[in-house]
Amino acid sequence: MTTAMANTPALNTGVIIRRDGVGTNAKDKGKRTIVVTGVARSGTSLVASVLKAAGLHMGDHVYDVVNEDAQMLEIVRSRDTKLLRALIQQRNTRYPSWGFKIPNLHAYMRYDELNQFRNPHLIAIFRDPVAVAMRNALSEHTGQLPGLIAASGAMQAMARFAEQTDCPLLLLSYEKVVSFPPLLIDSVLDFCGITLTAAKRSALLEQVKPNNPDYLSVAARRFLGRIDGIMGGALYGWCFEENRLEPVRLDVLADDRLLESFNSDRYRADLASGGIGNGCHGFSIDLSHHKLPADAVIRVKITGRQLELENSGQRLDRFEARLSAA
Prior knowledge:
The chain folds into 2 domains: 2-219, P-loop containing nucleotide triphosphate hydrolases (Rossmann fold, 3-Layer(aba) Sandwich); 223-325, Immunoglobulin-like. Helices cover 36% and strands 24% of the residues. It contains 12 helices and 15 strands. It has helices spanning 2-6, 44-53, 70-78, 81-94, 129-139, 144-164, 174-179, 181-192, 198-204, 213-219, 269-273, 316-325; strands spanning 15-18, 33-38, 62-63, 68-69, 98-101, 120-126, 169-173, 223-231, 234-241, 248-254, 257-264, 266-267, 280-286, 297-302, 314-315. The strands form 4 sheets. It has a 5-stranded mixed sheet. A hairpin with a 2-residue loop joins strand 10 and strand 11. Helix 5 (129-139) packs across helix 6. It is elongated, with a radius of gyration of 24 Å. 33% of the residues are buried.
């Protein structure tokens, strides 16, 4: 049985459980707030999908596939304690137990602030940092080695956060639980105090899908954009991230030397009429004061990512020549 496995010292299950924590009032006995976190891309969506399928309320505005509580995420990020207290009270009234998922929770909340929730139970999942770096490289278009260093540092910070919390704690290894799905199901349900029939527990195994195509289809961020040309010494073009209206941050380089960073946020009627977001995705950057030679190679990259705009990597004079020909 899985329970016996978890109690077998010689077997590495990849599961760490700490059951002691903040005391619970008698009236709240059996009521829990399940907090799911982990470094982004480490398997938080998997854990949240199991809990949601098990019938635990995971939010009123949950992003499909990734199972992220949009309302809770916005409030926690804003650090608005008044709104957070109101939301907690609302959900405590509606549900005996409920939960939410926020990756990188340690970046938005102090460990002792978990005590704002009724009988908090923390689930944190960890994944091989190389795998996290590669997933970010594929989905976020970031560098692989910088991503590895960032993921390793974030996991250390997450481990410290978990260690310092004063609540019941469940730590999971992504690699272990996807290798043996019943271990994930049994560990999570037992920790959360959720009782299901054998048939319903078996049905939860369908949630354990490494490299879930539905997840991969929404996990990758997609950018569109191009350098249109140079006019009056100003480089102009546009950039847009699909399904987001926030302006994209860009870097312009000459011969691989960074000149400026800027937001692609100017309104262009042609973008709006072409269905490119809300049209506020253009840019016009004056390069004349940089005194660049005609053969300087101009690149525009998305800040922090291994992506360049269409037409990037051409000589300055060729941008001007192409514009004149047009």
